[in-house]
Backbone:
């Protein structure tokens, strides 16, 4: 897109109405609760959470992995527009990058709380551990966040505030010319860390259930399918709030159909994976692990109802059946349903698998206990901080930045 096209985009002004002020006040309450929880964790340490040596990953890592997946519409749609040349989807790119930025920074905020020593967040960049999958994930996430910032910089400099700074605006226009290159780089980096997040579960304690080559594929497919749908839902909700069409509806319907097909592909891999693990390649370790999950956790319900029905089948129907696909409310409902499925999948993999004890432990003469975990109130408080932060970023961006082209209505 040319520089002149950039200047045709104007922010949709959210008036400082009573409703807007009440909404900002609500977000302020969320941030205050969350900041209190975060400061408490920083002062007292992770021992005030319900995480333990047997279940060291809990609610925060679930939110981290979910935020990354839900923000994946940025690299997916950027790749579609700039790599495959489908310019018809151009009007939604800025919003997709915004949602991606909110998702990835929310994930990093969660990680900052989870690592226990946030003052050492810079260590992976200085002390390389090339044998660690998590090191590679950390490097890719931080690099991709910088790519997102570079992609979003042209939008920021178009804000009215920068009228007095023409040199900064010209720099933003120059960065905009790099968008095709950034789209290619962002796609490569994103696919690498999305798949590596899935690969992580082949080398941790949950290996009786999750040690399989299909896990990276499922992480990538679920993110590619759900991330764009979340962007569509945000577009519709913003349209309802401001009373103006933000993105052409035919563009949003194309994206939801893409997400519907992606969810079906993800479901296909998931069912074959389930059959391979529980039937064709069943082992005593896998049998005992699934039996333990059925006895100690709501895993069967969260898998079949949460992941399969709510996370795959329902949104696929809402996105692909013509009777529903043209209804904006159905698209939003489908995106929310897919979000629930992603969150439950990340929870089941992250926390559920850790309930299963290792069959052995060096230097231990007795069987390891079954893992136990339910998030402590302080952990929910930090999640409130992350949610409040993400909603604040999106709200302020819609209010002050030129995210959308003017639409006829």
Residues:
């Amino acid at each position: 897109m040319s520089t002149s096209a950039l200047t045709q985009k104007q922010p949709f002004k959210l008036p400082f109405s009573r409703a807007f002020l009440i909404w900002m006040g609500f977000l302020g309450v969320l941030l205050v609760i969350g900041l209190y929880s975060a400061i408490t964790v920083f002062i007292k340490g992770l021992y005030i959470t319900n995480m333990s040596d047997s279940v060291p990953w809990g609610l925060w890592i679930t939110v981290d992995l979910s935020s990354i997946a839900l923000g994946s519409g940025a690299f997916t749609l950027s790749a579609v527009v700039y790599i495959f040349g489908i310019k018809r989807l151009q009007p939604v790119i800025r919003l997709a990058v915004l949602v991606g930025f909110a998702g990835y920074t929310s994930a990093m905020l969660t990680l900052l709380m989870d690592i226990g020593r946030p003052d050492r967040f810079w260590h992976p960049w200085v002390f390389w551990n090339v044998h660690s999958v998590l090191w590679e994930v950390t490097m890719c996430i931080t690099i991709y966040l910088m790519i997102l910032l570079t992609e979003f910089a042209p939008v920021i400099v178009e804000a009215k505030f920068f009228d007095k700074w023409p040199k900064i605006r010209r720099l933003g226009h120059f960065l905009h010319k790099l968008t095709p290159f950034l789209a290619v780089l962002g796609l490569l980096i994103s696919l690498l860390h999305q798949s590596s997040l899935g690969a992580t579960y082949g080398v941790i304690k949950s290996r009786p259930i999750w040690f399989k080559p299909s896990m990276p594929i499922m992480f990538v497919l679920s993110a590619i399918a759900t991330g764009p749908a979340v962007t569509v839902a945000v577009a519709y909700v913003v349209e309802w709030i401001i009373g103006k069409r933000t993105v052409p509806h035919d563009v949003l319907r194309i994206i939801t159909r893409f997400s519907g097909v992606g969810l079906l592909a993800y479901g296909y891999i998931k069912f074959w994976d389930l059959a391979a693990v529980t039937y064709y390649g069943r082992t005593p370790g896998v049998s005992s692990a699934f039996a333990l999950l059925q006895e100690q956790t709501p895993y069967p319900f969260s898998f079949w109802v949460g992941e399969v029905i709510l996370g795959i089948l329902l949104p696929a129907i809402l996105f692909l059946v013509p009777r529903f696909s043209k209804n904006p409310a159905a698209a939003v409902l489908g995106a929310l349903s897919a979000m629930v499925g992603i969150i439950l999948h990340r929870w089941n993999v992250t926390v559920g698998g850790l309930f299963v004890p290792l069959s052995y432990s060096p230097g231990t003469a007795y069987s390891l206990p079954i893992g136990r975990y339910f998030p402590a109130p302080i952990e929910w408080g930090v999640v409130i901080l992350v949610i409040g932060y993400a909603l604040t970023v999106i709200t302020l961006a819609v209010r002050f930045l030129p995210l959308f082209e003017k639409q006829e209505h």
DSSP finds 17 helices and no strands in the chain. The CA atoms of residues 276 and 282 lie 8 Å apart.
